[in-house]
TrEMBL record:
Organism for this UniProt entry: Stagnimonas aquatica
Keywords: DNA-binding, Transcription, Transcription regulation
SUPFAM superfamilies hit by this protein: Homeodomain-like, Tetracyclin repressor-like, C-terminal domain
Protein name stated in the entry: TetR/AcrR family transcriptional regulator
DNA-binding positions: 84-103
Domain HTH tetR-type: 61-121
An MF annotation (GO) of this entry: transcription cis-regulatory region binding
Length: 248
């Protein structure tokens, strides 16, 4: 009936001698009401009303796109040496755990960025000349509109001292070589090229000419230039391997 008697404070009072002046002080002091000025409350309410809502972190596919966009931004602005997982996470507003769950290293991130770039589609037109002109035209449109055009030369230079990055870019380059290889093999099947035509050497020449034009001469691949390159290639490839062999 008297639950107060069972409280620890009441038992402490009973255990204290009656003549102890601090006997009843053992009860906790009652809580005092704090009067907050109305002006302070109004100011706090106004601050909360004007505060910007927190930007939510992207999720799922959106977070992947945010991470790849941040990676490309860092590569474009400051180069590969400035690319770190910490900086990508901060720029993309994503956790490092989220990044590592999808990409083990920053080289894998670079690979993923290049994977977003469209690849030229091989065609089977009336002739090898027409097929190559169409293919190079696709490649021109892809690179001229891509921010990676300014990134690739820096990455290529970095490959000299970075085997991991070099291995990653070899995979990227193989994706770009595949359509050219398919067009040339189709020309051999149609009898337009000799069976012993050195396809890999031809692809080396094509990529070398295009890279020099785009990245060193800083010039566009005009239609006349593409046609001239194709005709020059056809004269060389059409002679076959001869006595020389190109090892791959």
């Amino acid at each position: 009936m008297f639950p107060m008697r069972h409280s620890p404070h009441f038992r402490a009072v009973l255990a204290t001698p009656a003549n102890d002046p601090g006997r009843w002080r053992r009860f906790p002091a009652p809580r005092q009401r704090v009067n907050v000025p109305a002006s302070y409350l109004r100011q706090a309410a106004a601050t909360m009303a004007n505060a910007k809502p927190a930007v939510p972190r992207p999720r799922g596919r959106a977070v992947e796109q945010a991470i790849l966009k941040a990676t490309l931004q860092i590569l474009t602005e400051d180069g590969y040496t400035a690319l770190t997982i910490d900086r990508v996470a901060a720029t993309a507003r994503a956790s490092k755990t989220t990044i590592y769950r999808r990409w083990a290293t920053k080289e894998h991130l670079v690979l993923a960025v290049f994977a977003e770039l469209p690849v030229a589609e091989p065609v089977a037109g009336p002739s090898l000349e027409a097929d190559l002109i169409t293919l190079f035209g696709q490649f021109t449109r892809i690179m001229e509109n891509s921010p990676l055009r300014g990134v690739l030369p820096n990455l290529t230079a970095e490959c000299i001292n970075n085997p991991e990055l070099s291995a990653a870019l070899i995979q990227v380059n193989e994706q770009r070589r595949a359509p050219i290889r398919q067009v040339l093999r189709h020309a051999i099947t149609r009898g337009e090229l000799p069976a012993d035509a050195d396809i890999e050497l031809a692809i080396d020449v094509i990529q070398g000419a295009i890279s020099i034009r785009l990245y060193f001469l800083l010039d566009r691949l005009s239609e006349d230039w593409i046609q001239g390159l194709v005709r020059l290639l056809l004269k060389g490839i059409g002679q076959g391997r001869g006595t020389g062999k190109t090892k791959r």
